Amino acid sequence: MISRLGGKEGWAMYLILVQHGEALPKEKDPERPLSVRGEDQAVRMARFLARLPFRPDRVYHSGKLRAAQTAEYAARELGISAIEPHEGLGPDDGVDSWAKRLMAHEGNLLIAGHMPFMGKLASALVGRGEARPVIDFSNASPCILERNDEGFVIHAYVRNDYC
């Protein structure tokens, strides 16, 4: 899907926000890798994304194992080699710096992270402020935002059960 946005012919920006798949409890494994269910969720999410008419150019994640694994499933299915950890995507990090960065970003991007950060970021990007959630994120459920002339709008949100 290519559209004309911001006066740039043939350019659009899609941002896919994904909370990591279900992770093992800290008591079972302090690193909190994906559970078997979380792996299944990540596979379903990745296969759903592969059916979209656009691809992310890059995949970012928080660096925590469960987010990295979720991002890797998506990158592998989408044939993306540009996958990297980034600071400031943790569960309790502030969203202001990422919101500003994403408003200026060109190209499609997938970010795998955590709640409550992902919910606050989505809300901030669509102009609701981070305190008023616009999406009730669930594990490995993609939220697709599209940037228009005013900022971001929700393009789609698909719960993992429907992927």
Would you mind describing this structure in some detail?
By secondary structure, this protein is α/β, with parallel strands linked by helices. It has a single domain, classed as Phosphoglycerate mutase-like (Rossmann fold, 3-Layer(aba) Sandwich), CATH 3.40.50. Helix content is 29%, strand content 18%. The protein has 4 helices and 6 strands. It has a 6-stranded mixed beta sheet with strand order 3-2-4-1-5-6, with helices on both faces. Helix 1 (36-50) packs parallel to helix 2. 37% of the residues are buried. Residues 1-10 have low confidence and may be disordered.
Describe the structure in brief.
This protein is an alpha/beta fold and 163 residues long. The protein is 29% helix and 18% strand. The protein is built from four helices and six strands, in the order βαβαβαβαββ.
List key phrases describing it.
alpha/beta; 18% strand; 6 strands; 4 helices; Rossmann fold; six-stranded mixed sheet
How many domains? The number is: 1
Could you tell me the strand content as a percent range?
15-25%
- Please, how many helices? 4
CATH class: Alpha Beta
CATH architecture annotation: 3-Layer(aba) Sandwich
N to C succession of SSEs: EHEHEHEHEE
What is the general shape?
globular
Cα distance, first to last residue? 20 Å
Largest sheet: 6 strands, mixed
Going by CATH, what is the homologous superfamily? Phosphoglycerate mutase-like
Specify Rg, calculated over alpha carbons: 15 Å
- Helical amount among residues, as a percent range? 25-40%
Kindly report the CATH topology.
Rossmann fold
Query: Structural class, from helix and strand content?
Result: alpha/beta
**Number of E-state strands:** 6
Detail the poorly predicted runs: 1-10
Give the mean pLDDT: 91
